[in-house]
C-alpha cells in the first residue's frame, strides 16, 4: 500500500522491471506438465539439466490457461543463443540483430529466446533508449533478467512463464487474474507502449478477437489517437500482422474489431470501401466466415485466396466501370486486376508471390457463366478449379451472382457422365447460339436442331 502511494506520488509505475513475480502452484493455474508437447518439455528439461532456466512462455501458457490447444510453443531462457545452440544437436540461430534459436525435434520447431530487456530504467529521466520522434523504440536487443523480459512483453496475459519441472507459473503483472477476467491489459503505460511499437495496437485487436477478451479501457483509450502511427511501420510487418489476424481462426470478429478501433486505415485501408457497400460487406463476411470455419476444421486456408476475396470488390467495381466505358469484358477484367494489384501495393504490400494465384482465381470467374459445349469440362480440369469454385460460391452467397449458378456447378461436379450431358443440354437448349445459321425458308425463328 505504502509502496503504491509512493509510486503514485513519484510517478513511478507499479511493478517496474526488477520487481518480483508471483509464483503460482498447480492448484492456482491448473496447467499440468503432461499438457505440454514432448518437444517443448524436452527443451525445458535439457536447459535445466545444463544449469539454465527454461520456461514455456507467451501464447502457449496463455492458451493452456484458457483451456485451448496452443498453436506453437516458445521457450525463454537465461542461456545465450550460442549456449542454447551448443545444447541441441538439431538447432540453428536465426536472425542477426535479434537472435533466437530454432530447436528441431521430429517435424516440430521450438523457438528459444534469451531473456531480453528493453533497457527501461526505473524513472523516465534515466531512460535513454533510442526512439523516433513519436516514441517508437529503435532498438530492442539487450539481454536481461527474467523480470526485464516480462516487462518488455506487451500484455499481462502474454507475460506468464511456466516452469514444467515444478508445474509453477511465474506471473509478473497479474496475467492469470486477467485471463480469468478475460481482460486484455497492456503492461506499463499504454500510451508509451503503443508508441514504442504501434503494431501492438493491431495485436490488441487480434487477441481481443481471438480470445473473445475485452480490452481494458485504459489500454484502449490511446488507440484512437495513436492509430495513425501505423503509417511509420514497414509494410512487410503490417502484412505479416494482417495475415496473422486473417488466419487466426477469428478473422470475422478480428476485421470488425479493427474497424471499430479505427485501426483498419493502417492495415486494410480497402476495408472502408468494401464494408460501405452491402454486397461487398456480405461477400467479405462470407469469405471471412468460411476461412474461420476452415481453420476450425484444421483445413488449410490460402493467403492468396483470402487476399483475392479482400480485393475482389474493387476488382469488380473497376471491371464494370471499364466495361461501361466500352471495353470488352475479358480485357476489362484483366485491366481491372492489374490496376487493383498496383494500387494495393502502396497500401498493404501483398507480396507478389500471391499475384499469380489471385489473378487465376479472378480470371476464371467469367468462365463459370459459360455452361455449354465442352467448356464446363475444360474448366473442371483447370488446376485452380477448386479455389475458383469456392470463390464463386462466395459471390453467390453475397448476391453478386445468382445462387442458381453456384448450385449448378455444385451439381455438375456431383453427377455422373450422363447427368452432366443432361445438365448441359438442359442449360444450353433455351438459349440461342451466338453464331446463328442463316434461316432456311419455313424454319421457326430462333429454332435450333437439338443433337440426337
Ligand atoms: P499467438 O498464439 O498468436 O502466436 P503469441 O502471444 O505467442 O500469440 P507471438 O507473436 O508469437 O504471440 O509472440 C510471442 C510473445 O512475444 C508474446 O506472447 C509476447 O509476450 C511477446 N511479443 C510479441 N510481439 C510483441 C510486441 N510487439 N511487443 C511486446 N511483446 C511482444
Ligand atoms: Mg506464438
Topology of this structure?
Layout: H1 2-9, E1 22-24, H2 26-29, H3 38-49, E2 54-57, H4 59-65, E3 74-77, H5 81-87, E4 91-94, E5 100-105, E6 108-114, E7 116-117, E8 142-143, H6 146-151, E9 160-163, E10 168-171, H7 175-181, E11 183-184, H8 190-196, H9 199-211, E12 214-215, H10 217-220, H11 223-226, H12 235-246, H13 251-260, H14 264-267, H15 271-275, H16 278-296, H17 303-324, H18 329-345, H19 355-364, H20 375-380, H21 385-397, H22 403-414, H23 417-428
Parallel strand pairs: 3-6, 11-12
Antiparallel strand pairs: 1-10, 2-3, 2-9, 4-5, 5-6, 7-8, 9-10
Helix pairs in contact: 9-12, 9-13, 16-17, 16-21, 17-18, 17-19, 18-19, 19-21, 21-22
The protein binds adenosine-5'-triphosphate and magnesium ion.
What does the model show?
This protein is α+β, with helices and mostly antiparallel strands and 452 residues long. Among the domains are: 1-181, Beta Polymerase, domain 2; 303-427, cca-adding enzyme, domain 2. The protein is built from 23 helices and 12 strands. It has an 8-stranded mixed sheet. Strand 9 (160-163) and strand 10 (168-171) form a beta hairpin. Helix 19 packs across helix 21 (385-397). The longest helix is centred in the last third of the chain and has 22 residues, at 303-324. It starts with a helix and ends in a 24-residue tail after the last helix. Residues 1-18 and 429-452 have low confidence and may be disordered. The structure holds adenosine-5'-triphosphate and magnesium ion (MG). Residues 58-59, 71, 74, 153-154, 158-159, 197, 199-200 line the site of adenosine-5'-triphosphate (ATP). Residues 58-59, 72, 74 line the site of magnesium ion (MG).
Amino acid at each position: 500500500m505504502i509502496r503504491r502511494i509512493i509510486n503514485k506520488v513519484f510517478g513511478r509505475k507499479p511493478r517496474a522491471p526488477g520487481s518480483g513475480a508471483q509464483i503460482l502452484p498447480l492448484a492456482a493455474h491448473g496447467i499440468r506438465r503432461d499438457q505440454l508437447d514432448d518437444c517443448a518439455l524436452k527443451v525445458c528439461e535439457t536447459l535445466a539439466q545444463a544449469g539454465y532456466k527454461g520456461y514455456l512462455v507467451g501464447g502457449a501458457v496463455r492458451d493452456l490457461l484458457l483451456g485451448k490447444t496452443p498453436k506453437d510453443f516458445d521457450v525463454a531462457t537465461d542461456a545465450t543463443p550460442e549456449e542454447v545452440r551448443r545444447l541441441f544437436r538439431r538447432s540453428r540461430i536465426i536472425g542477426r540483430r535479434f537472435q533466437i534459436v530454432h530447436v528441431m525435434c521430429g517435424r516440430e520447431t521450438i523457438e528459444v529466446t534469451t531473456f531480453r530487456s528493453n533497457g527501461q530504467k526505473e524513472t523516465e529521466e534515466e531512460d535513454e533508449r533510442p526512439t523516433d520522434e513519436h516514441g517508437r523504440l529503435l532498438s530492442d536487443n539487450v539481454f536481461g533478467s527474467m523480470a526485464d523480459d516480462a516487462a518488455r512483453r506487451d500484455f499481462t496475459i502474454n507475460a506468464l512463464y511456466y516452469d514444467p519441472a515444478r508445474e509453477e507459473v511465474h506471473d509478473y503483472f497479474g496475467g492469470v487474474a486477467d485471463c480469468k477476467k478475460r481482460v486484455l491489459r497492456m503492461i506499463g503505460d499504454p500510451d508509451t507502449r503503443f508508441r514504442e511499437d504501434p503494431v501492438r495496437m493491431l495485436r490488441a485487436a487480434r487477441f481481443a478477437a481471438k480470445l473473445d477478451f475485452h480490452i481494458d479501457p485504459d489500454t484502449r483509450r490511446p488507440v484512437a489517437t495513436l492509430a495513425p502511427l501505423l503509417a511509420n511501420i514497414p509494410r512487410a510487418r503490417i502484412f505479416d500482422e494482417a495475415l496473422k489476424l486473417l488466419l487466426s481462426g477469428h478473422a470475422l470478429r478480428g476485421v470488425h474489431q479493427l474497424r471499430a478501433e479505427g485501426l483498419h486505415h493502417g492495415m486494410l485501408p480497402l476495408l472502408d470501401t468494401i464494408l460501405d457497400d452491402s454486397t461487398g460487406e456480405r461477400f467479405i463476411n462470407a469469405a471471412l466466415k468460411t476461412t474461420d470455419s476452415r481453420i476450425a476444421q484444421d483445413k488449410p486456408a490460402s493467403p492468396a485466396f483470402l487476399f483475392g476475396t479482400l480485393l475482389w470488390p474493387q476488382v469488380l467495381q473497376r471491371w464494370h466501370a471499364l466495361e461501361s466505358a466500352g471495353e470488352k469484358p475479358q480485357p476489362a477484367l484483366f485491366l481491372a486486376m492489374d490496376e487493383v494489384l498496383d494500387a494495393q501495393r502502396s497500401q498493404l504490400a501483398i507480396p507478389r508471390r500471391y499475384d499469380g494465384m489471385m489473378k487465376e482465381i479472378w480470371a476464371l470467374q467469367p468462365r463459370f457463366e459459360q455452361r455449354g459445349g465442352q467448356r464446363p469440362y475444360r474448366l473442371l480440369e483447370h488446376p485452380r478449379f477448386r479455389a475458383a469454385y469456392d470463390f464463386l460460391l462466395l459471390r453467390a452467397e453475397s448476391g453478386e451472382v445468382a445462387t442458381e449458378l453456384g448450385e449448378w456447378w455444385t451439381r455438375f461436379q456431383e453427377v455422373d457422365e450422363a447427368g452432366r450431358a443432361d445438365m448441359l443440354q438442359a442449360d444450353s437448349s433455351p438459349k440461342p447460339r451466338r453464331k446463328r445459321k442463316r434461316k432456311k425458308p419455313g424454319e421457326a425463328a430462333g429454332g435450333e436442331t437439338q443433337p440426337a
